[in-house]
Amino acid sequence: MTFASDNWAGAAPEIIEALAHANEGAVPAYGGDALTKRVEARLCDLFERDCAVYFVATGGAANGLALSVLAPPYGMVLCHEESHVQMDECAGPEFLTGGAKLVPIAGAGGKLTAEAVQKTLAGYPHRPPHGSPPAVLSLTQGTECGTIYSVDEIKALCDAAHGAGLAVHMDGARFANALVATGASPAALTWMAGVDALSFGGTKNGCMAAEAVVFFDPAKARDFEFRRKRAGHLLSKMRFITAQFDAYLTDDLWLRLAAHANVMARRLSEGLAAIDGVEIAYPTEINEVFVCFPGDAAERLRANGAQFYPWVTPGDPAAGRMNRLIASFRTTEAEVDEFIAQVRAIVSS
Amino acid sequence: MTFASDNWAGAAPEIIEALAHANEGAVPAYGGDALTKRVEARLCDLFERDCAVYFVATGGAANGLALSVLAPPYGMVLCHEESHVQMDECAGPEFLTGGAKLVPIAGAGGKLTAEAVQKTLAGYPHRPPHGSPPAVLSLTQGTECGTIYSVDEIKALCDAAHGAGLAVHMDGARFANALVATGASPAALTWMAGVDALSFGGTKNGCMAAEAVVFFDPAKARDFEFRRKRAGHLLSKMRFITAQFDAYLTDDLWLRLAAHANVMARRLSEGLAAIDGVEIAYPTEINEVFVCFPGDAAERLRANGAQFYPWVTPGDPAAGRMNRLIASFRTTEAEVDEFIAQVRAIVSS
Amino acid sequence: MTFASDNWAGAAPEIIEALAHANEGAVPAYGGDALTKRVEARLCDLFERDCAVYFVATGGAANGLALSVLAPPYGMVLCHEESHVQMDECAGPEFLTGGAKLVPIAGAGGKLTAEAVQKTLAGYPHRPPHGSPPAVLSLTQGTECGTIYSVDEIKALCDAAHGAGLAVHMDGARFANALVATGASPAALTWMAGVDALSFGGTKNGCMAAEAVVFFDPAKARDFEFRRKRAGHLLSKMRFITAQFDAYLTDDLWLRLAAHANVMARRLSEGLAAIDGVEIAYPTEINEVFVCFPGDAAERLRANGAQFYPWVTPGDPAAGRMNRLIASFRTTEAEVDEFIAQVRAIVSS
Amino acid sequence: MTFASDNWAGAAPEIIEALAHANEGAVPAYGGDALTKRVEARLCDLFERDCAVYFVATGGAANGLALSVLAPPYGMVLCHEESHVQMDECAGPEFLTGGAKLVPIAGAGGKLTAEAVQKTLAGYPHRPPHGSPPAVLSLTQGTECGTIYSVDEIKALCDAAHGAGLAVHMDGARFANALVATGASPAALTWMAGVDALSFGGTKNGCMAAEAVVFFDPAKARDFEFRRKRAGHLLSKMRFITAQFDAYLTDDLWLRLAAHANVMARRLSEGLAAIDGVEIAYPTEINEVFVCFPGDAAERLRANGAQFYPWVTPGDPAAGRMNRLIASFRTTEAEVDEFIAQVRAIVSS
Prior knowledge:
CATH class of the largest domain in chain A: Alpha Beta
Oligomer: homotetramer
Number of strands of chain A: 11
CATH superfamily of the largest domain in chain A: Type I PLP-dependent aspartate aminotransferase-like (Major domain)
Radius of gyration of chain A: 20 Å
Shape of chain A: globular
CATH topology of the largest domain in chain A: Aspartate Aminotransferase, domain 2
CATH architecture of the largest domain in chain A: 3-Layer(aba) Sandwich
Largest interface: A-C, 57 and 57 residues
Number of helices of chain A: 13
Distance between the termini of chain A: 20 Å
């Protein structure tokens, strides 16, 4: 009963198999190989336009390097106060951008609204060079609270950002989960709605270590390859990252893995919600369930071997009582049902 | 009728005269001169303890370099959401610290409370190395809203900070104004209450360009001289900064200048408060008055030649209608009274 | 006939197989898993002492992060003028250290001498805070010129460095190749000779993407985990890096791979040296051969499909005529012999 | 007998007087005042073209911020191995640029040649993104060795730089001394010869703390005002810097001060050269004399109260026996003659 993190799940078998296939023969290093070129083209196809695509091994690198290209080193990056760039990267965006200022914004369910963005911008009046000039709005899709933005919500946010001269970055560590939840196309959910650059995550959804940064206007990507290299993020044997994406995109593997995780989370969420005294903190829209257990139930569940993290954030609506449960491509119905049964037993005892 | 900024006021005549005296003879550069040593000793006397003292020319340098010594480059600096380090230094602290994360905290009248600090820290749970570790609490005394912290308030804030392992930095760009307003001693208002490092400002209070960073535990100052040098903040002809401080501290010049500015601000505040329709936004405790004028009065005052800035901040309680008026050592009663008369005339017309 | 780079070679089959095994079950992320702990212990055993061990995916990350822990952001890092940190990381060490100054030193065959280090230090007199204080000596073992340092040479260099207060970093991207070439033990070649931190490379020698930073005095490693995280170099599914090292160290795989590559390079070097008009630029001590071909032989070899890079460096002794040929674990005798035969045919034609 | 540094000399009386005049009245802060605008225009007139001009208080700030605008944070800055940016700013350029790589180049008498620049560039082959891309050539005029570049030499260097895609920065901390030594016009010595940006120094030549960064193509200056601000280098009471320049440029004060210092240095150099056993290390072309004294003469001179520094550099031709003597606007003939007499007495005793 492991609901600790999608990072605990290991990789999908197809991903591991792809590494063995990619290992054949000597090929140019640093992304000069044919497979990498092919995967770049696949991503352009997927997003229905010419993009500049760069591969890295971690989401922190993808986010920080993307922001470093979109923002000047003295610029302001607006983000949700519970976003990964703000809470979970040990001030990585500040470092990788060379000193940009992250401005956290509150919002229910991990989501920003165009109104909140505009209110924040209004509070930081234009006073060059005293104030850090607003440069980027960073959105997370799906959010850290397991919710998603609709296409219309993204459009409204991008309009607010562009209207004030900001570029829009999307942290898509769980982009696949959001995509299957919305039913929108990758293009509709990103550049068609106004997103300028996407951290397209593979790792949390069954890859081993594979993230792509996609710039929808290649002209805006100018510095990326230098910044990636100097930060130590250009993998020499690049084929082993791109091979993961190749398998990930083949036969809709990525969508199947994400759909499964989402379904498991929904099953978990619905099962828990039906138990008296258990509260679901946010709508379960992707593969994350945020839940408050009554009394000492959380401790007893952990003592039984269940694995999940307590969840504390600046905007915590549950006064420190929340827990985060994550389903992955590996989560089984049996695992979910057993957990629900345990909760029911503990709560009713 | 200039109430735009204490930076518009120029320097007190005593300060300028001191420069001419300091100019006699050849002396060692970079702070190796006798005058600099003497002024360092004067500051130790003033604060009633051995301190490490470093001189720079701007408040931004003082704040950013002080923080760079107190925080690791991946650490978190808590500050008020309207503080100078957050709003007015173009992401300077992020740069000078090498990437620290500034976390803005709301608080009425530009002031933080121990409770708000503790609540913020509780929202950033200890999860090394994912979360940026909290490193410094930065207070501003007097605040950007023209208010002051009492000794007890500072003690409570320092206790909260130290209890969580944070060092305390005080941005004292208007320290003199706060000091005369509280009546406390320099020691009582700083290290005795728990402050670890102070940006001791001279510029806004009648110096030309003179700021000192005072570390109350010299052992904590270790890196400062290297960081100051590499940031380009070690002045070669240092005597011209320390000469300003020498004059500043002589015959209580600094206290007289600050007291005058405070008195002028209070006169202004009381005069304006007596006019129907004029609202004072914050208590006028030092040399700053925040005021909302009815209708188009602000525009008409400016058209008459009055100089003052509109004031917009993230926590703005007045929906963009606030103006900031600052009194300086140069402000005269006549100037204040004329302004009040003009306001009265315009508002009643 | 691929002699372009050991990075072109892909991974040894044992490494790929290990990934599949490591993929079983859900385990803690970010290095909290049992395998990672076990591999840390194996590295301590290998080096015969308690070490602090950190895993990353690239050599650039290993070097830059190691240096960032050993040097203050304003410190000086001495290195060979042809070293990877100086020539091949796009100013990565400057970035990852937060601004340290790399001082390149010339030396025959890619090697530094204690005398050259001392002469360089003498040229940078101690003048705090004006001069950047010397902080680290970074050695490369085996060097970028395919040569190795003997244990005595390392000792002399470390003595020179420590005598002047510098820490010693060793870039061991080809540490395995150097180890089998010297016959010394890992401990003898590193901390026993005075090395403080080692970038222990796996990638170039048959891993997919696996590097370890080893601090021989764990107390000196203090900040590494925060610096790794904020730079985006903490892999979430860490087991896939440590699984590579687990296989790498099992049954002496790493030594067998390196020995093979070294033998192939020696065969290549000796074969080429026997051809009139072909010059070997440096002693072939590990898996790299630096060679000058007469006339247009290099172009004709490339036209025939042979893959190798021209090699140009600041200290180039061959006026731009040098080529670098690298053997890997995958290089075969047949490939070597065929290349030699082609060279012979072209040169004698 | 103070020949330690032009920074020991204090400020010219005209400069100090100008501060008092500039102090009249309240004026906009941060450079928005009329005097600052006027001085900007004077500098454009002086250089006979529209320039972007920015004022700072130190030479380290001028150099580092200029480079930060001309180079990307991963770019390469070529400079003389004895230049101030390399030797005397505690890795400031690396910090202020956000991580650029300084590549030191040897050259007799503190001077670079076009050939040496081209040879260096040839040693750093174009291999994006592995090698740091060459971005800037930084020249020092007059050099740290007291020599000057002729207009033709600057042209040749700028041609070499521009031909390879590099911008040219000139560190003109002693620009006035070089100007009067060459007899060229400010325009001829800078942009007409190809210089893109100049650190125009005032401090060493009789100002208190006044440096200007002049971009000859204003379009290239884009980011400067933000970078200056976030580094803490935007002085609030800017008029006190620009007032210095106003006086400096009035009635050719700057040229008179520099000419005097140069004449004193030449008198010193010629007097010393005439003494048996005393060697002048470099041609005395501006206000610096580099000299080797026989035996223990240097120690005896210092014991007599003479003030001058030993001079040690990476390219030291005199094996650590060199001393640097600097004349300033304040140096008198009597002082020079007395020193020469003392040397003569000590050496002949």
